[in-house]
Amino acid sequence: MGTLLLLLTGAVLLALAVSHRWRRRLPLTAAVVYLVAGWLAGLLVGALPVGDWKVAVPALHLATEFALLMSLFGIGLRLRRRLDRGSWRAAARMAGPGMVLAILAGGIAATQWLGLPWPAALLLAAILAPTDPVLASEVQMRSDTDGDAVRRVLTAEGALNDATAFPAVMLALGWLGLHALGVGGPAGSPRWWLQDLLWPIVGGGLLGLGLGRLLGAWLRWCVGRGELLARDELLFVGTVALASGLARATEASAFLLVFCAGLVLLPSSSRSPDTEGDLASLSLPDRIDGFGSRVERLVEAASVLALGLALHSVRISAAMLGFALTLLLLVRPLSVRLVLPGTGLLRRQRRLLAWFGIRGLGSLFYLCHALQAGLVGAVAEGVAGATLVSIALSILLHGVSVTPLMTAYRHQRARPPRGPDEPSARAAAPEQVDDGQQDHRAQQGHQQRAHAEDALVDRGNAQDGRDEDAGDRGPDDAHDHVQQEALLPVRAHQQAGDPADQAAHDEQHDEIDHEEASYTARRGQAGPCGKRCAIEGVALSPDRRVA
After folding, report:
1. 421 with 458, same domain?
2. pLDDT in tens, 74-99
3. How far is the C-alpha of 103 from the C-alpha of 168, rounded, in Å?
């Protein structure tokens, strides 16, 4: 059986590696292909029933945990460009109050559809509460400069709710007698509140931020002494292992600790290399981010192939399908829509966020955690079966719908806002709505001034960057300066954005222009003219005039 599995896995991965362009034309994601391939492999080799998983559960638990930690660290690196407050607020609401609502509603649905007792139903709902930021690449951030509001919020939510689901899972295991809650239960004893709720989340976040800043300072010191930091994969895996060990030693949330460490470890793309010990000049952030993306693809392939194979271990029933559909079509959309008002997101963005609650690796980890804690018998089979069916159905529904929905969304965001709520949303938080695109007519004067200074500085850098002590500029510079000023209206028009041109640009690159944001960051570093400053990483002396 092992030989056949290796042959099938290798054939599927190689076929997907050479058919990327062909697959992109189909309205489905790679996860759907992995799921189908795993299910077909299960037809040939069969699968162990849930009752016989006992031997393999410890290894599966460790594998899913490490894969999830690797993915969360990569996501933290990608989110290191600080998100606006609206995106963080929306993600925190969805991973906090929204998750509580989803767990309560999911538990009620589990009792009605599956006939589970309340503790087991609560456990099932908590296992399925986390969303996966790795599956369905169309709705996750693609780089640290990705400005799409929907992808940013979904990625941040998926990174946060893997940790916030832990207290609910431990509470349900305690009610099942598989975890010590303390005398009086969670309401009467501080044990659950402190050891399962407050410390894992708060302590994990603080320890992660501290570890990330400490390691980042150490890396900058190493670069200052001439180290090249060429082995970026060792930095990636070593940081994850160190953070995981720290989490185990302190009993904090490893998921939140690793994610927060990735947030602050490396400089953001908007900072100059000089301010961060020349880490950016070594392209270290880009190299580590690229390694993290490759890790995520491997994690996605391995986990979904295993899921497709494991589907043959459970008896799929109509009740399981009904519960899964209720969870995906009712519980997730309603819980998200209830907590998103006031975040500055547009109505179409809130609809997409409510739909794309993709289940995946986090749910597999918590299922293995529950089985390793001692969940057995008919309850274990019911919880495992409903979990696997819900994840598979989520991958299918979201994987098939993501391409057409996101394509329609890209076309809609290129049009001017319509509807009674959108103008008010722009006025309330222009940097948070419609994928970060502001009202260009209101900002046109500021953008023209910004590009005027950028053009002058760029011209000055081009003429004087090679020689810091060069003499005054010659008469040809004045002619070049006039030519540069003549291009300013064109650049301002490009920054304002023609809807048709913007739509075509979005279809090709699926990214938002962050020129305005990067200018603001550079302007904050540059300081007023006449003082020594750094713009685009080039030092300007007081006697170097650019105009």
Report:
1. no
2. 889 888 766 678 888 999 999 999 99
3. 8
